[in-house]
Amino acid sequence: MGRSPLKWPILCTAGIAVIVFYCIFTFTSLALFPTPYTPVKNWMSDLGNSSYNPKGAAVYNIGCIITGLALFPFYAGVHEWYTDERWRKRLLIGAQIFGFTSAFALIMIGVFSEDYLAQHIFWTQVFYITILVVLILANISLLTHPHFMRPIGYYGFAVALINLGFTISFAPLFEWSTTFTALGYVGLLAYNTFKAFGN
Length: 199
Description:
- This protein is mainly alpha-helical.
- It is built from six helices and no strands.
- It has helices at residues 10-32, 57-76, 86-111, 117-142, 150-169, 172-197.
- α3 packs antiparallel against α4 (117-142) and α4 (117-142) packs antiparallel against α5.
């Protein structure tokens, strides 16, 4: 029999929590948005703007804070993938450091919504840049790991390219694409971690 969910690697349970929390709070806020909303024209953070979304802004911002908190144990759980190879472990530790920074930045995005535009833009930039670095470091380290599913690594590099496209174009649709493909990577890594270390 497999291990109880209570005994799964922390990366697995935290990864599921990250996806569930962010989606629930984001789509609840979206449902409360008073005017027609489209990812082509609207930034995700418009959901947290009290002027644009008076009923749903707090929901989105709280969701960012809670999701950011859930990212800390997720990144801490990357230690499951450490090996005796120093280069691999160093890259993973680097990914964790940037990951913790991205988690803190997401919390700050919730604290400083679009109502505090200068601070919000700063923390948003920190968040997406650190996510890009995490994807690169993690995938370089894991791609040759004996327990890693290589298609997940290829997907991770594709997500990194989408993220890079967002940092260059700074278009709302790229923001949505970057965020949800990154959530997909969280889910895939959680699945791979469970298959490798959870039984």
